[in-house]
Amino acid sequence: MKRLSFIFGSMCLAMTQANAELIINGSTTSTVTPVQNSSASNQSYSSNNNFQNCIANLRSQAVASGVSGDTYDRYTQNLTPDYSVIDKLNYQPEFSKPIWDYMSGLVDQERVDKGREKIAQYRDVLNRVQAAYGVPAETVVAVWGVESNFGDISGKYPLLQALGTLSCEGRRQSYFRSEFFATMRILQRGDLTVDQLKGSWAGAFGHTQFMPSTYERLAVDFDGDGRRDLVSSVPDALASTANFLKKGGWQTGMPWGFEVKIPAGASVAGESRRNKKPLSSWVNRGFTRVDGTPIIQGNLSDSISAGLMMPAGANGPAFLVFKNFDAIYGYNAAESYALAIAHLSDRLQGKGEFVTPWPTDDAGTSRAERREIQNYLLKKGYDIGDADGLIGDKTRQAIQQEQMKLGLKATGRAGQQILSVLRNQNAGQIMQ
Ligand SMILES: [Ca+2]
């Protein structure tokens, strides 16, 4: 597993959009109890003095892990804590997020178009990556697109400061300490500089948002300059992602999965991604692909195993997923996240959207539509910051207020319903 999401398990459906973007930046935090606000939580933090003591006390552990004493002293000498990362660690979303909101923001036409541009731009590199690791270009580029929006959003937290703080405060200090030490070993090796090592608050960095320990294990030098550089070398980043998937069990030439039709009356209780069964058993139970064609096609055979994944229950889209889905899942340990990458890779190959609609009367919106909603809210005078397409708590509260005015259910969701109302109101105003 690439990063710390195992701490929080499969909680990502409870995340706000702001937090979904944090996934892209390599971190997830969400649990279900109310958050303490940052001014209150700051009072419980240790003083800077305690931080310096803590860092000094970690020196022997760092040295035991392979960091030289000189390296440790050099990089901790002027290190100061940044307690905002503890607020991020403790952040609890106020709103829950259904999977259709999650998917519609991560896999929208904008990301498909940009992904196709990147595939064209890096065609030669991707061909060589595919030849070396057996992972298709579209899958590698889909990871890149979901992780950092193709390198646009890779995080701004200085890694040593963020990981140093997380090593001395808050939950999971031992986990963050090993990442803190790994960061110093990377610097010691000379692959990257301190200035390059900026990332998410939790320490994931570069185009493909590897944690430092993952970088040590799996990053590769693919452009041949002798350095493994996930920050400024796209070829290194793409090949490292392919290497991650290959080491995670990727099977060349096999699909991640596909959407299926659940036969009428079939019992699907207990079925899951993990509960894999031979394809013959799904065929015998009457399952077909969603377009009605047989499950077994191409290089698939009876004995290959797949699990039935129903991310929104039996009334939403259902998928048979193979080992390659698990390899993608290893990237962030959330089924919705893996499905976003899998679906984006299909879209990049020219396949269409899911056939079965999500079980909702208020479908999700693309990032372009979210920006449109935010622009209407700004026009109405709501203080929601920039129209950046990221639906944070402020945007959600503004949507809630509008929904209450309209007598709609105050979900705070940036869905198609509120978009359509705001669009009509705006058109009306322009007419007057
Ligand atoms: Ca390199």
From TrEMBL:
<dbReference type="InterPro" id="IPR036365">
    <property type="entry name" value="PGBD-like_sf"/>
</dbReference>
<dbReference type="InterPro" id="IPR036366">
    <property type="entry name" value="PGBDSf"/>
</dbReference>
<dbReference type="Pfam" id="PF01471">
    <property type="entry name" value="PG_binding_1"/>
</dbReference>
<protein>
    <recommendedName>
        <fullName>Lytic murein transglycosylase</fullName>
    </recommendedName>
</protein>
<dbReference type="InterPro" id="IPR023346">
    <property type="entry name" value="Lysozyme-like_dom_sf"/>
</dbReference>
<keyword id="KW-0732">Signal</keyword>
<feature type="signal peptide">
    <location>
        <begin position="1"/>
        <end position="20"/>
    </location>
</feature>
<dbReference type="InterPro" id="IPR031304">
    <property type="entry name" value="SLT_2"/>
</dbReference>
<dbReference type="InterPro" id="IPR043426">
    <property type="entry name" value="MltB-like"/>
</dbReference>
<dbReference type="Pfam" id="PF13406">
    <property type="entry name" value="SLT_2"/>
</dbReference>
<feature type="domain" description="Transglycosylase SLT">
    <location>
        <begin position="51"/>
        <end position="346"/>
    </location>
</feature>
<dbReference type="InterPro" id="IPR002477">
    <property type="entry name" value="Peptidoglycan-bd-like"/>
</dbReference>
<feature type="domain" description="Peptidoglycan binding-like">
    <location>
        <begin position="367"/>
        <end position="422"/>
    </location>
</feature>
<dbReference type="InterPro" id="IPR011970">
    <property type="entry name" value="MltB_2"/>
</dbReference>
<dbReference type="GO" id="GO:0009253">
    <property type="term" value="P:peptidoglycan catabolic process"/>
</dbReference>
<dbReference type="GO" id="GO:0008933">
    <property type="term" value="F:peptidoglycan lytic transglycosylase activity"/>
</dbReference>
